[in-house]
Design goal:
Keywords: Hydrolase. InterPro entries: AB_hydrolase_1 (IPR000073), AB_hydrolase_fold (IPR029058), Carboxylesterase_BioH (IPR050228). It comes from Streptomyces antimicrobicus. GO terms for molecular function: hydrolase activity. The chain has helices at residues 35-43, 74-87, 100-111, 138-141, 146-169, 174-186, 192-198, 217-222, 237-240, 242-253, and strands spanning 2-5, 12-18, 21-28, 51-57, 93-98, 116-122, 203-208, 225-230. 41% of the residues lie in helices and 20% in strands. It has one domain (2-128, 187-253): Rossmann fold (3-Layer(aba) Sandwich), CATH 3.40.50. Helix 2 crosses helix 3 and helix 5 crosses helix 6 (174-186). By secondary structure, the chain is α/β, with parallel strands linked by helices. An 8-stranded mixed sheet has the order 1-2-4-3-5-6-7-8, with helices on both faces.
Length: 254
């Protein structure tokens, strides 16, 4: 495992670095997840293997540090990730990014264009979201104040999330989890969707076939974003249908 200091205080992002041909591929997880758990099988799938692959844990998640003075907005996550990729010697990478990680990847590509040559967004958040008490996901987490979440709201989220998501969510710092959720529902300015429409690089958006059609798909496709529905899966496409995910991702990157 490799790491890089990405904040003035020396907090470190960590990643698994699989050797292979350049340019690199960078895998970025979603809220309350960790890239090695979600993407290891994909990175070595026969359709995707052979490229240098970085399975990155964002600050506050997985194996990375958990600074308490970090605001965990999309911009902050993107800039920290940019610092890690720069330290890793990455430029012109292909990013494969899930859910919140997709939102971070869009902001990264807009703010640090030399680092990103293409995007595969895996059921990523493109728009600000409403806060929805009593629901699972970023909208539910962000419906608590930070004090409420730390005082016990996290346990209610744990019970709603279920054993699979909680198995990685429990690795995230609770302050980081809440602030990241708030950052995600708040979104970016311009919005992630608006940024995505303007990016001058190859872009593909993968979604579960059961959730198609994607809202705003016509405008995305008119701007050159390929929208691809993957069968037999839910939100965690790479885990639910590994072969379908690998086929769709390989086609997007070919």
């Amino acid at each position: 495992m490799r790491s890089a200091a990405v904040t003035p205080g020396g907090d470190r992002i960590r990643w698994v670095d699989l050797p292979g041909a350049e340019p690199a591929r960078v895998y970025v997880h979603g809220l309350g997840a960790t890239s090695p758990a979600y993407f290891a099988a994909s990175a070595v799938h026969p359709l995707l293997a052979g490229r240098r692959s970085l399975l990155v844990d964002l600050l506050g998640h997985g194996h990375s540090d958990r600074p308490q003075d970090f605001d965990y907005t999309l911009v902050a996550h993107a800039d920290a990730l940019a610092a890690a990729l720069t330290e890793a010697g990455v430029a012109g990478a292909e990013l494969i990014a899930h859910s919140m990680g997709g939102s971070v990847a869009i902001v990264l590509a807009a703010r640090h264009p030399h680092l990103v040559a293409g995007l595969v967004l895996v059921d990523a958040n493109l728009d600000p979201l409403p806060r929805r008490p009593g629901t699972v996901g970023s909208s539910g987490i962000a419906s608590y104040t930070e004090a409420e979440f730390l005082a016990g709201g996290w346990a209610e989220v744990r019970d709603l999330a279920g054993a699979h998501w909680w198995s990685t969510m429990r690795l995230a710092d609770r302050t980081a989890l809440h602030r990241s959720a708030v950052g995600l529902v708040t979104g970016s300015v311009p919005t992630m969707r608006e940024l995505l429409l303007e990016l001058p690089i190859p872009r593909t958006y993968l979604l579960p076939a059961a959730d198609a059609p994607l809202a705003g798909a016509e405008a995305l496709e008119a701007a050159g974003v390929s929208v691809v529905a993957v069968p037999d899966c839910g939100h965690n496409i790479m885990l639910d249908n590994p072969d379908g995910f690998a086929r769709a991702t390989a086609a997007a990157l070919s």
